[in-house]
Amino acid sequence: MAVSTDFLDTKIQIRSNHGMVDGKEKTTSRTYGDVRASATDQDIYDVAVIIAGLQQPVMEECIKQEINLIMPV
After folding, report:
1. What CA–CA distances, in Å, run from 46 to 5, 35, 39, 40?
2. Nearest to residue 60, comparing CAs of 49, 73, 72, 46?
3. Using one digit for the tens of pLDDT, what is the confidence trace for 25-59?
4. d(CA 49, CA 30)
5. pTM over 0.85
6. Quick one: which of 37, 32, 30, 38 has its CA closest to 60?
7. In Å, how far from its chain's centre is CA 34?
8. Confidence class of residue 1 from pLDDT cuts 50, 70 and 90?
9. Which residues contact 38 (CB under 8 A, 6 or more apart)?
10. What's the pLDDT at 56?
11. How far apart are CA 16 and CA 26, in angstroms?
12. Where does residue 48 rank: exposed (0-12), middle (13-18), buried (19+ CB within 10 A)?
């Protein structure tokens, strides 16, 4: 069966590393939505760096999440 996809949304996820806490590595993540569909990967990364600069601890990863609807044709 053939399928098609429709773009729905793009989100940025920023993962931060807090280091070792109680003998385990502690990481947290925050997700930010409403990313313009026309934003390039470089634009998204630049914004993630700016956001991460306003919070502690330092950013470990920047993840781009694209959400698409998959439906039969």
Report:
1. 28, 13, 11, 10
2. 49
3. 999 999 999 999 899 999 999 999 999 999 888 89
4. 13
5. no
6. 30
7. 11
8. confident
9. none
10. 85
11. 9
12. buried
